[in-house]
Amino acid sequence: MTPPEKDRFARMGANHGTFRPQGTMRPQDRTVARTLARLASAAHGVVTREQLLDAGVTRWQLRERLRSGALLREHRGVYRVGHRAPNREARYLAAVLACGPGAALSGLAAAHLLGLLRGAAPAPEVTAPAQRRPDGVVVHRAREGIDPDERTVVHGIPVTTPARTLVDLARLLDAEQLGRACHEAGILHGTTPRQVEAVLATRGKAAGAGTLRAILHGDEGVTLSVLERSFLERLHAAELPLPQTNRPAGGRRVDCRWPEQHLTVEVDGYRYHRSRHAWERDREREREAYARGDQFRRYTYGDVLERPGRMLAELRALLAPAEGS
Questions:
Q1: What is the pTM of this model?
Q2: How far apart are CA 262 and CA 247, in angstroms?
Q3: Domain ranges of the chain
Q4: Which residues in 183-284 belong to E strands, given as ranges?
Q5: Counting runs of H as helices and runs of E as strands, what totals does the chain give?
Q6: What is the pLDDT of residue 273?
Q7: How far apart are CA 266 and CA 186, in angstroms?
Q8: What CATH number does domain 226-319 carry, 2.60.40.3930, 3.30.428.10, 1.10.540.10, 3.40.960.10?
Q9: What distance in Å separates the CA atoms of residue 253 and residue 218, rounded to the nearest whole number?
Q10: Which of 30, 31, 56, 279 is the most buried (most CB within 10 A)?
Q11: Where are the alpha helices (DSSP H) in 225-264?
Q12: Which residues in 139-172 are b (16+ Cβ under 10 Å) and which e?
C-alpha cells in the first residue's frame, strides 16, 4: 500500500471508527435493524417514535433511518418500516397510534375491521380524548375517552366494540344497511340487543337510536341477507305463511319465527359456521328454541337455493294447522 493510501485509510478510521468494506453493517446497525423488525412484526409493520426510543434506538439513529427510507413517516411520531406494503391493518393502527393514548378505531372503519360492513376499506376513523388531527384521519373527540366496556382489540388494533360500533353507525346508514350490520354483529361476535341497549343508555339522544332500536326489536322490516330473502321468496311462491324475521326470542334475535306454530328457523350460510365457536353457538340457539317450546330447523344454502322441494315439504307439515283448530 502506498503512503497516500495509508493516509487515506487513517483519516477514514479517525473519522468513522474502524474501516468497513462496502456492504458490511456495523454491530449497532444490526441491533437497530433487529429492533425495528421485532417491533414491526408485532404491529403490522408500524412503530412509534416512543417505542423506538424506549427500545434503545437513539434520536440520531432514528433520523438516519428516516433519511435512508428504512422508516417511512405515516403520521407525526408514527412510522412504517420501509418496504412493507401498507395494508388496511397498518393504516388503521397508524391512525389510532397517531391520535394518542386512549384512542380507538371507530365508525365506518371500525365496522369494516369488525366485519360488519363489506366493500372497500373506508378511510381511518378514530375516537380519542386528545385534540389531534392527523392528516387523512377522521377524528371524533371524546373528552372523557371511550368507556373500557366499549373498547376492544382486534388484530392488535384498539377498536370500539361491535355494540358501540352499531350505535355509531346508526347515524350513518339507512335501515337496510344498519339491519345487515346488526345481523353480522350477532353472527360474528354474538352481539345481543341487550348489549346495544346498554351502550344506547349511556349516549343520551344518539342520532339514529330510534331506527336502531326498531331493528333490534324487530319493528323495522329489514331483510338481513341474500339467503334470507331467497328463503322468504320460496315461502311466498309456495303460499306458505311468512314468519316474523329478526326479532328477539329468548334474549337474542332469530332469523325466522312463527310464534303461533312454535317454530324457529335459522338460514345462515356456511361462512358463519366454520369455527368451533360458531358450532357451539348454533347448538345454544337450538337449545334455546326447544326451551321456549319451539321446533327448530336450520336450512343451508343448498336447502334454500338448490333443493328447496324437501325443505318446503317439511315446512308445510310443520306449519299445517293442528286438527280441530
A1: 0.69
A2: 14
A3: 100-216, 226-319
A4: 244-249, 252-258, 263-266
A5: 14, 12
A6: 47
A7: 13
A8: 3.40.960.10
A9: 8
A10: 31
A11: 226-237
A12: beebeebbeeebbbebeebbbbbbbbbbbbbbee
Q: 96, 104 in Cβ contact below 8 A?
A: yes
Cα distances (Å, whole numbers) of residue 34 to 37, 38, 45, 84? 5, 6, 13, 15
- In three-state secondary structure terms, 47 is strand
Tell me whether strands 104-105 and 125-128 are parallel, antiparallel or unpaired: antiparallel
- Of the candidates 132, 134, 129, 138, which has an alpha carbon nearest to the alpha carbon of residue 109? 138
What is the per-residue pLDDT for 254?
80
Residue type, 2: T
Sheet bearing 125-128, strands edge to edge: 138-141, 125-128, 104-105, 157-160, 151-154
What count of other Cβ atoms lies within 10 Å of the Cβ of residue 203? 14
Contact 129, 141 (CB under 8 A): yes
As a whole number of angstroms, the distance between CA 65 and CA 277 comes to 44
**3-class DSSP assignment, residue 216:** helix
Give the chain's residues under pLDDT 50: 5-6, 8-25, 273-275, 323-325
| Block residue for cell numbers 353480522 | 184
Beta bridge partners of 254: 247
